[in-house]
Structures are given as structure tokens and as C-alpha cells.
Amino acid sequence: MIILGLTGSIGMGKSATATLFRDEGVPVYDADAAVHQLYQKDGAAVDPVEAAFPGVKVEGAIDRTLLRERVLNDTAAMKQLESIVHPLAGAAQQDFREAARKSGAAFAVLDIPLLYETGGSGYCDYVLVVTAPPEVQRDRVLSRPGVTAETFEAILARQVPDAEKRAKADFILSTAHGFEFAHDHVRAIVALMNRKAVGDNA
User: Fold this and answer.
1) So, what pathway does this thing act in (predicted)?
2) Which side of the chain, N or C, has fewer Cβ within a 10 Å radius?
């Protein structure tokens, strides 16, 4: 089974692109959703995260806004959080891979925002980077509820620059040209991955 890593900086349209792959019947692992599950009531990350950052647990779940305020501009705190969450998310990803393999899928997509930052690209056969012009990215992010310019810049500072991601990618998809343009590219990548999977198993 071929593994396609899907990544892109904040506001580039990565999540929308992941949905297009799902629409084509491709299994997609959503790293953000996996972490969200870990933070929900009775989630595996709730108690260790609360122990590391007292006060971020609210009504049995991690309040992600409070947690972000605690770690976003604190490199040591962010590393501490990652040391807790990444192994748990990694286990969830392994479960996904195994389920996709058992289903007989020709290939699967790993939707991981920090794919390059965490070294996850090394576990992928190919990587697709979703991109958009800086002004489009900024407008999208600042239109989100509660996101300030300061928050946006702090998030960008933690991410590998878009140009560097594109330079490393096997595939690049721009979301600046509309839905159909993006969907056509996704269909082409799906067809290519399916052909490669058949070739690998021939």
C-alpha cells in the first residue's frame, strides 16, 4: 500500500483537499482529528496534558484555546506538549494504516499539518504540498474566529516555510484557482497512485 503524505501551512486549503481525496474513496488519516479525540473527555492525552499544564482541563476535556495560550510562544512548553501527544497520535496513525491495509486500499493519505516539522515525511512514499499565495493564506486565516495577526505569525513561525515545503514535495496543488481546479488535480493524483500501486504489486 502506497502512503501519500498531505501537508501545507495554515490557511492553504489542506483540509479541503483531504476532503476531496475522501470523496474519491481514498482512506485519509486526519492528524488534527486524532489529536482532538485525544483531548476530548476520557481521551488518552487529557490527564498527562493537565498534569503538565494545570488548568487546561475543563469539564473533563482539554480546552484547546487555553492550551494554545500556554504553549504557542513558549518553545520549551511546546516541546513538552509534543512529547506527550506525538506518541499517542502515532499509535492512532498506526491503527489507521493497519485498517487501510486490511481493507485492500491501493494507497492511503496521511493528512498531517506538521509533516515536515516532525519528520513524518520519511514514512511516506510521496508528499503532496497544498499551497496558495501569501495574501490568500493570510485573508483565510484572519477570517477565522478568534485568530489575530499575532497568533497567525506565531503559528507560521513554527512551520517550515511554504517555499521550502514546495521544494521538497513530490506534488504541489494550489487552492487559489477554485474548487474544480483542485478537484481535477486530486483526481489525477488518485489515478497516478492507483497505477503505481498496481505496478508495485505486479
Assistant:
1) Cofactor biosynthesis; coenzyme A biosynthesis; CoA from (R)-pantothenate: step 5/5
2) C
